Amino acid sequence: MTKDELINLFNKVYGSSEGNRGLHFFFAPGRVNLIGEHTDYNGGLVFPCALTVGTYVVISPRADRKIRMYSDNFPNIGVVELSVGSLEYNEDHNWANYPKGVIETMKKHGYIGEYGFDAVFYGDIPNGAGLSSSASIELVTAIMWDWLNDFQADRVQLVKYAQEAENQYIGVNCGIMDQFAIGMGKEENAVLLDCHSLEYHYAPVKLNGVKLVIANTNKRRGLADSKYNERRSECEQALRDLQAVTTIDNLCELSNNEFLKLKTHISDPVVARRAKHAVTENVRTKEAAQKLKNQDVAGFGKLMNESHVSLRDDYEVTGEHLDALVNAAWEEEEVLGSRMTGAGFGGCTVSLIREENMEETLKRIGEKYEAATGLKADFYVVGIGDGAKKLT
Fold first, then answer.
1. Given 22, 41, 45, 352, which is the most exposed site by the fewest CB atoms within 10 A?
2. Does residue 261 belong to any structural domain of this protein?
3. At what angle do helices 269-293 and 228-243 cross, to 10 degrees?
4. CA 322 to CA 290: how far, in whole Å?
5. Does residue 178 have an active-site annotation?
6. Which residues lie across from 186 on neighbouring strands?
7. Does 374 have pLDDT greater than 70?
8. What is the total count of domains within the chain?
9. What is the pTM for the complete model shown?
10. Considering the domain boundaries, does residue 198 fall inside one?
C-alpha cells in the first residue's frame, strides 16, 4: 500500500486529516526463518531474515489519553477505542490486543505514555501463514510508541518487550526469534542469532540466480492452540532428564555426539526424539550459516531438506499439507532446498528455487499440491528487507 493510499484510508476511517496533529508512518516486516526451527526456546541458533512485506501503521497523535485503532485486515472489528490508562486484555478487541499488550508491557517497565493516538494498521503479510504477522504488529507498535513518547529505548529492549507481551499478555509461549528478526533485520542479510545469549551476526545472503520463495499451504494454524506448548514442555522434560547427569542449561549446548552418548538418560522415547531434533537442528544451523558464507547455495539447500525431515520425523510438527508441499518441491530439478518454516501444522514452506523457468516450476508444484490435498497453495517470491522503522 502506498503512502497516499494509507492517508486516504486514515481519512476514510477518522475523517479528514485537517486539524489533526500530523500523520506519521511506521513499518515492521514479517520474517521467515531460513533454518533453525524450534531451537529458539531450546537456547540454540536460528537463522531468520526480515521480509519486504509487513505491517504499516499511520498515526495521528492526540492531545488526550484516548487510543483509537483500526486494521484494514480486520474491517469487521471496526475502530477499537480505549484509554492509555486502561489496557486490559479484551477478547472482543481481537487483533488490537497485540498493540495493547506492547503498550501495557512497556508501561510495566516504566515507559509510560501520557497521550493517545489515532492509528490505522495495514498488513500485506498473508494472515495465519506463519510469517509472524503478530510479531510484526508488536514491533511496529513498539517503535511507534517509543517514537511518539521520545523514550529512546534500546532496540533490543523493545524486541524483548514485544516478546514479553506475546508471552504474558497474549499467552503464547514463543521464543524471541520472531521479534528479534523483525526488530533487527537488515536488507539482503540473514541474522544468525544465539537465542540464549542474544549474540547475533549478520550474514549477507547472495543467492546468485536463486530466489527465496515462500509457499502458503492455506491450511490455517492457530499458534496458541497448536501443539507448540506441548513440544516446548517435552523439550523441558528432556532437559530435566539430562541435567541429572550433565551440567547444561539448554539442549542446544550439546553436540550431536554428546547427545548420542547421553540420550539413554531421557526416560521417554518420544521426548528423546524431540530433544534429538533440537540438538541436530542447531548443528545444521551453524553449518548452514557457513555454507552461505562460502556462497554454497546448493549445500545450504540440502541442509534445509534435512531440517524438514527432522521436523517431520523427530519433532512431528509438519502434517499432511506441509509434507505434500515440500514433497512436490523436492521433485523439481530447479529446487535446491525446501522445508516447512514457522511453528508447523500448516502455514508456510520456504524454498530456494532457480530463477529460470520459475513460473513453470511453481505451476507444477502447485498442481501436485492441489492434487494431494485439494487446497491451492499461494507462492511469494520475496526479498530480504530491513527491520522495523519509522518511514520518512
1. 22
2. no
3. 100
4. 27
5. yes
6. 189
7. yes
8. 1
9. 0.89
10. yes
Q: Where are the beta strands (DSSP E) in the chain?
A: 24-33, 45-46, 48-61, 66-71, 80-83, 117-123, 189-194, 200-204, 210-216, 335-341, 348-354, 378-382, 389-391
**Residue 181 is part of which domain span?**
3-203+386-391
Distance between CA atoms of residues 28 and 7, nearest Å: 18
Cα–Cα distance, 254 to 278 (Å, whole number): 10
Cβ(48)–Cβ(288) below 8 Å:
no
Length of the chain: 392
**Cell numbers placing 167:** 508471552
- Residues 332, 102: Cα–Cα separation, whole Å: 43
Q: Which residues of 146-159 are buried (b: 16+ CB within 10 A; e: fewer)?
A: bebbebebebebbb
Strands 335-341 and 389-391: unpaired
Q: Are 146 and 64 in contact (CB under 8 A)?
A: no
- Going by pLDDT thresholds of 50, 70 and 90, the confidence category of residue 224 is very low
Whether the Cβ atoms of residue 31 and residue 182 lie closer than 8 Å to each other: yes
pLDDT for the residue numbered 1: 82
Q: What is the mean pLDDT of residues 86-101?
A: 97
Q: Please state, in angstroms and rounded to a whole number, the distance separating the CA atoms of residues 272 and 159.
A: 32
Active-site entry in 178, 241, 314, 323: 178
The neighbour count for residue 375, using CB atoms within 10 Å, is 15
Tell me how far CA of residue 263 lies from CA of 45, 259, 272, in angstroms. Answer: 21, 6, 7
What is the CATH classification number for the domain harbouring 137? 3.30.230.10
Neighbouring residues of 254: CB distance < 8 A, sequence distance ≥ 6: 242, 248, 262, 279
Q: What is the mean pLDDT of the chain?
A: 94
Q: Is residue 91 part of a domain?
A: yes
Contact of 34 with 304, CB cutoff 8 Å = yes
